[in-house]
Amino acid sequence: MPERAEIEALVIESVQLLAEDFEIKAFDKLDASTCLYGADAPLDSMALVNLIADIEDAVSEKFDASIALADEKAMSAKNSPFRNIGSLVEAVAERIEA
Amino acid sequence: MNTIVITGTRKGIGKALAEYYLNAGWQVVGCSRGEGSITHTRYLHFALDVSDEDAVVAMARFIKKQFGGVDALLNNAGIASMNHALLTPASTVNRILQTNVVGTFLFCREMAKLMRKSDCARIVNFTTVAHPLNLEGEAIYAASKAAVESLTRILARELGELNITVNAVGPTPIETDLIRGVPKEKMDALLARQAIRRMGEVRDVINAVDFYLRPESDFITGQVLYLGGVT
Q1: Residue A14: which of A53, A44, A63 has the closest Cα?
Q2: Nearest chain A CA: its distance from B113 CA (Å)
């Protein structure tokens, strides 16, 4: 089981690469509190789909774990796990552990 | 080198498609429920059930590691059961929907993730003339392919932003295991409803698939092409 800091580094790196690919300039800083998706957040739905696929891929490569972030739990959660980097890190950790 | 994933490559149309793209110089990744029947340096086989989510995800992960991505997907794997609706058990209905609908969906989902870096990404799904012809005795098979057509049209829109085209080809009956056991009178009556009244051949399917895969076809998506002049 990777450390939380390792997962956070992986998520931040994925967001950085996505921001370069999609030319998203709205991120001043990238840490646990950085908003990703929702009202007035920088990612549109297509960027989010790409980010989820990128993170699933990176988790498989770096931690040798096969996870699905967009599962029924994520879809039915009261607070979307994709709203900010912290919640996304939490979602990745939960699924690696499961 | 371009990489193509083809489901259902052990026999029939899937095997012919795999051999065709191997000859054309592609890296071919195939699958079937059992062991493969193709031996080639550029052919890799997975023995899996296309509706097994974990197995499809594992296959996609392996392809990513091995080849970096995927350029084309042919969702050829499919099963049929010809029977009157009143004599069709629910287990048969579930089996057909699992392979034809769930399997097609899972491969679209997982391979589309691997196509994001391709500059010529193509998905071709397989439907049938049994759907537009409303063939008696094929209610569940035709219904499953109606679902595949709907999936094709909607995925074309959802994946359009990723520059992935999604189309479908609908063959007429071809001499394969799928139609083994259909009586001759039934087959003749079916051919009579086609504009061009002959049995389909594998080359007809390859021609349609090849058209969708051409780089010049990047403005063609969400389409269903029936063979034999069926509309």
Answers
A1: A53
A2: 6
